[in-house]
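Handover notes (outgoing to incoming on-call)

Open items:
1. Caleosin CLO3-2 isoform B: sequence verified, structure written out, both below. Nothing else pending on this one.
2. Nothing else urgent.
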Amino acid sequence: MQADAPAAPSGGRSDDRVVTSIDAAPMTHLHPVPDLADRIYNPGLPRANITCDAEHPAGTYSPPAAMTVMQQHIAFWDRDNDGMLWPSDTYVGFRKLGFNVFLSAIAVPIIHGTFSWWTQNSWLPDPAFRIRMGNIHRGKHGSDSETYDTEGRFVPQKFEELFSKYDKGNKGGLSFQDVQDMVRGNRNIMDPTGWIAGWLEWNVSYYMAAKDTPRGRLLLKDDVRRIIDGTIFYAVAREVEAGRLRMRQLQGGMEPRKPVAATPAGAAARKID
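Caleosin CLO3-2 isoform B structure tokens:
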């Protein structure tokens, strides 16, 4: 005769079979996980070349066949589409995003000094400190959100957890304090490199993309997804260039005119070394 199943501990659950929080561990109540079974097909299955979420289960763009999501994240900086990021590419990219000369210059040694060696095809470092896009998955650090897996794919479940855990009040985005709470919550033991990297990445993202809303200044959920797949960088660069164009026209006594929209980002496939 089959024995009865043991009673489930008291606490929150996503259905009658899966317990997701228990009273004995208050952190499981404080940081709930989402039940996505009816919203995204197999949300724990990593997507190789597209991002998606509960609101866009099929994604929002035509995915490039030749780039993982993590490669798409940095493709904006590959100006000549050769699969190699030079230090000059990084500097120019940050300037296009509206960062000043000082911050753009500081970003170069931090990024290339950290990631260049790990992405090479041999144990010998690259004297030019280039980053190989094809090996960027080796640059995944600890104390992160785990939205990228170790091969550079996108994990919808982990993306949604960013907001179920840290978007307090269901605002549709992360406030500055939410971002700090998330960075602290993601910390792994004895991982100072990951702590610093996570803090820098998320605070730079907030500085670049947060928007004023009726509920305060927020890093919106859709913009976080676009940061992860890199499409937001092209949009921000177009906005920055349009602002600079208007400023030049006003300074020259000309009436501003609307610049021609650029081709959406991430649509073209390319060969990655």
